[in-house]
């Protein structure tokens, strides 16, 4: 008798563009840079300060968040669902400690960021995505949000585009938290890496974020993107990636390429 081949079911299909996006260290670092800007402007930033983890160790928090996202993107379906449920439990614990609930719009904001910066980063560093591929990105994070029980998620990518603009205009503001978080970025990144992250943010963030942070429109990195793409073929991209984050994170940076072990 021939033995049957059991095909593993994954949360994200093996051929999905989402795996391409979250399997490349540089796109992930660009996603981080964009999200770092937007987190600093969120009206729900007090939740990040409640635990103290983001201001105390923003880079460690980055790699923790990235680890969960990559675990979901590359994991077998049941393992991915367990990872999502673990995130929900963690958030519920924080809510219990504070005695109030994180608003649904704040959860949606984070999902919307992951969708938007996944697309923006890949298109900046790789190529334009088709409408079908953009919908793939949307679908993956919508399923994450649905599993977490987040209310009022848009039903389609087109609806998400409208909702994303509404969230950008309604849920962002510059505050004393913004200034403090950027001071923490500066302190933990060091001057060179901090300046490069700012230049990446100029390239990657939406217009509303640009305006609120008073970012200049021109980034000196823009003409270097083509050179960076060439450096990949010459295996020099490791050096350029290391400029974005301090040297002590070299192992974590290397681990961002390819599927997680």
What is the mean pLDDT?
A: 87
Discrete helix count: 15
Number of strands: 0
> Describe the biggest sheet?
none
Radius of gyration over C-alpha positions, nearest whole angstrom? 18 Å
Structure classification: mainly alpha
Order of helices and strands: HHHHHHHHHHHHHHH
Helicity, as a percent range = 55-70%
Distance between the termini: 34 Å
| Count of discrete domains | 1
Explain the overall architecture.
This protein has 261 residues and is mainly α. Helices cover 69% and strands 0% of the residues. It has 15 helices and no strands. The chain is globular and about 45 Å long. The two termini are 34 Å apart. The relative contact order is 0.16.
What are the key terms here?
single chain, 261 residues, mainly alpha, 69% helix, 0% strand
Layout of secondary structure:
Elements (H helix, E strand, L loop, with lengths): L16 H5 L3 H15 L5 H7 L1 H4 L1 H17 L2 H22 L5 H22 L5 H18 L8 H14 L5 H14 L1 H14 L2 H7 L11 H9 L3 H8 L5 H5 L7
Short description:
With 261 residues, the chain is mainly alpha-helical. Helices cover 69% and strands 0% of the residues. α2 crosses α7 (104-125).
């Amino acid at each position: 008798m021939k033995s049957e081949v059991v095909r593993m079911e994954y949360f994200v299909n093996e051929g999905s563009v989402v795996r391409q996006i979250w399997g490349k260290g540089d796109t992930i670092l660009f996603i981080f840079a964009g999200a770092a800007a937007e987190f600093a402007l969120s009206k729900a930033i007090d939740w990040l300060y409640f635990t103290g983890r983001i201001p105390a160790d923003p880079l460690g928090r980055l790699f923790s968040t990235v680890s969960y996202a990559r675990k979901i993107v590359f994991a077998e379906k049941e393992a991915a669902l367990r990872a999502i449920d673990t995130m929900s439990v963690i958030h519920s614990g924080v809510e219990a400690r504070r005695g109030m609930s994180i608003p649904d719009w704040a959860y949606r904001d984070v999902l919307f960021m992951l969708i938007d910066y996944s697309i923006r980063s890949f298109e900046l560093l790789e190529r334009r995505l088709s409408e079908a591929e953009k919908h793939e990105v949307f679908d993956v994070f919508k399923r994450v949000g649905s599993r977490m029980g987040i209310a009022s998620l848009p039903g389609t990518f087109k609806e998400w585009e409208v909702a994303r603009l509404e969230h950008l205009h309604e849920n962002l503001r510059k505050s004393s938290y913004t200034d403090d978080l950027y001071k923490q970025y500066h302190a933990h990144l060091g001057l060179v890496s901090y300046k490069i992250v700012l230049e990446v943010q100029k390239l990657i963030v939406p217009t509303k974020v640009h305006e609120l942070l008073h970012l200049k429109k021109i980034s000196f990195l823009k003409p270097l993107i083509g050179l960076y793409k060439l450096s990949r073929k010459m295996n020099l991209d490791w050096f350029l990636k290391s400029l974005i984050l301090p040297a002590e994170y070299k192992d974590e940076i290397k681990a961002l390429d390819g599927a997680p072990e």
